[in-house]
Amino acid sequence: MKHKFLFSVVALCLILLASHSAYAHKIIASVFISGNTIEGEIAFSNGDFAKNVVVEVFDEENNKLGETKTDEEGFFVFTPSKQITHIFKANLGAGHIANARMEASELPLAQTAAVSPAAATPASAQKVAPIPAQQLEDTRSMLRKIIKQEITPLRKELMAYKEKNNIQTILGGIGYIMGLFGLFFYLAARRKLKQS
Amino acid sequence: MHIVDGALSNQVVIAGAVLAAGGIAAGLRKLPMEKIPVTGVLSATFFVASLIHVPIGPSSIHLILNGLAGVILGWAAFPALFVGLLLQAVFFGFGGLTVLGINTLNIALPAVMAHYLCKQGLKSQNPMIAAIWGGIGGAAAIVGTTVMVALSLALSGDEFLPAAKLVLIAHIPVMVIEGVLTCFAVLLATKVKPELFSTLRPAQ
After folding, report:
1. Measured by CB atoms within 10 angstroms of the end CB, which terminus of chain B is less buried, N or C?
2. SS3 breakdown of chain A: % helix, strand, coil, rounded to 5?
């Protein structure tokens, strides 16, 4: 009977779980490259944005590089000046800390350097009149904008996917608990046998 | 409710881990064999409860159910909630591994307090009175946890009162929901399994 009751509590939890989206109060922070700047967003995993939060930027030795602030949609922009790994930290209060990392190799400074010669080669090979630098820059920023628009929904979906706890994980966790308490049982039983 | 890695100062994290280890040891020592299944099931309940999402206005909160574990288990709530928290940290990324100790303390200690608060009430022959005491225990455990969380933040440098207010206000709905939930769970338990509160006492 006892088991029936407690198992029904767990079963009820699982039923409730199936009907609700499984979010929890967790912080999601992500950073990505946009042109020459690093953009990032901070949100709670239930969909709330972290509004007007100060974001501090550190290097790997914990030296402060600067700080920025999120807007109404939890979005922030930081312009890197050095080709090093950037670590973004924000304190959202009540024990919530956002943490995100941008590796040095992903930084835009390295990427532009790599892209420029490649972009120049086909132009000269085909002997087309050289494109003015200004026009090239315009096209580039236009492309960036388009790509950003295109991948924004993808990024959101990916983030939602990452935060989803599927039923296998939950059942796996419950399985671990059963196993652990089974082990307790074994130990307790052995102790009892030794005593008697 | 789950404090994450890096939010607290080292002293608080270490003190939390030591105290939690003490609590877990006390819980395991007082855990009779008959109580192991209940402990496991309540651990599993706590583990999934945090995924149950209650929408409140534009935001939402999750259940904790430490009160229910506390009133039934007493000191055994420490190992039960520790296991639940450990698996939540590993599987869902709630909280973190370094702050496991302080999180266990923050959630399990109020549960044990709720147990002692409601001990007499739960033994009542009248199921309604026992259920009401259960509800009080469920709500009190949440209040205790919010105070503990605010206190850990305060000891790490945050201002105590604003932090406490913030955490407490955010958890008023949880308090109400868990009070009612624990009340009904106890009511059901007193009807189908009354010995859960009387004979299944830890061996003295």
Report:
1. C
2. 50, 25, 25
